[in-house]
Design goal:
Number of strands: 15
CATH superfamily: Ribonuclease Z/Hydroxyacylglutathione hydrolase-like
Distance between the termini: 62 Å
Number of domains: 1
Shape: globular
Structural class: alpha/beta
Strand content: 15-25%
CATH class: Alpha Beta
Radius of gyration: 19 Å
CATH architecture: 4-Layer Sandwich
Order of helices and strands: EEEEEHEEHEHHEEEEEHEEHHH
Length: 293
Amino acid sequence: MAKVETFYHQESSSLSYIVYDLVAGHAIIIDSVLDFSANSGQISSQFVDRQIEFMEKNQLTLVWILETHAHADHLSAAYYLKTKLNAKVAVGAGIQEVQQTFNTVFNYQQGKATTDIFDRLLQHNDQLSFGDLTCRIIATPGHTSDSITFLINDNAFVGDTLFMPDGGTARCDFPGGSSEQLFDSVQQLHQLPSATKLWMWHDYQPNDRALRYVTTVANSKANNIHLREGINKTEFVELRSKRDANLQVPTLLYASLQVNIHGGRLPVSEVNGQTYLKTPLQIANNLQQLRML
C-alpha cells in the first residue's frame, strides 16, 4: 500500500509529495523545491530539509527523485536531494527538447548531455519500482513537451497537467506547449478508474478558499471548469488560447529553467567566485543604443 505525505511550498503555491512503502520503507520524492528569493538572490533549503527530516524520522530510504516536468516557477531540489541521499533522478524523455530550446535562449555554447544530468529518461508506460510499489509513467504533454504523470496504485501525480476542478488546467503557451495535446492528455487521465486520486502540483486557492490538492477522476470529469465532460477539443483550445494570451511570464521563468534543465544544478561560478542567473532582455528598438559594446 502506498502512503503519501504532502508538503506545501507557500511561496510558489506548490505541492511536493513523498510516496513510500510502509513495509519496506522505500520512498520517492516528486517535484521538490529549493527556496529562492528573486529580490535578494538568496537560495536556501528549508523546504527540502523538512522532507529529509521526515525521511530520517520514519527511517525511509529514498530510491527515486522524480520530476513531472521542468517547472518554470521554482528551482528544483533534485540535485540537492541526490547529493544528500544518494538517490537517482528521473524525468520525462521530452526534457531533451526543453534543453535544446533553452540552451539557445541562454546562449549556452555547449549544453551538457542529458545522461550526465538525469539518471533515467522516462517514456510512456515505463515502470519504476521502490519497495513493493510500482510507479507507471503516463506521458501527458501539453503544458510542456516533457510533462509526465506518475501512477502508483490508485494515485496519479499529475504535475501541472490539471488543477483542482475549480482551477481548471495549466497554461500551454510555453515553448513546446500545446492545448491540443493537453486536451488529449487530460482525456487519458479521465479514462483512469473513477476512484483514482489525482494529486495536484499547484493550488492557487480560487476565491480565497482553503488549500486543496487532491481530487478524484470522477470529480474532475464532472466539474473541471475547463475540461469537464461535454467540452470538446475545439472549445477547449479556444478557451485555453484566449486565457494564455493574457497571462504574464512567470516571475521565476528564467531563473528556474536555467537550474531545472540541469536537474537542479546551479550555474558554475565566474572568475570572481560569484554565481549568476541570466535574464534575457527584450530591448525596445529605440533603446538598442544603450547596450555596452
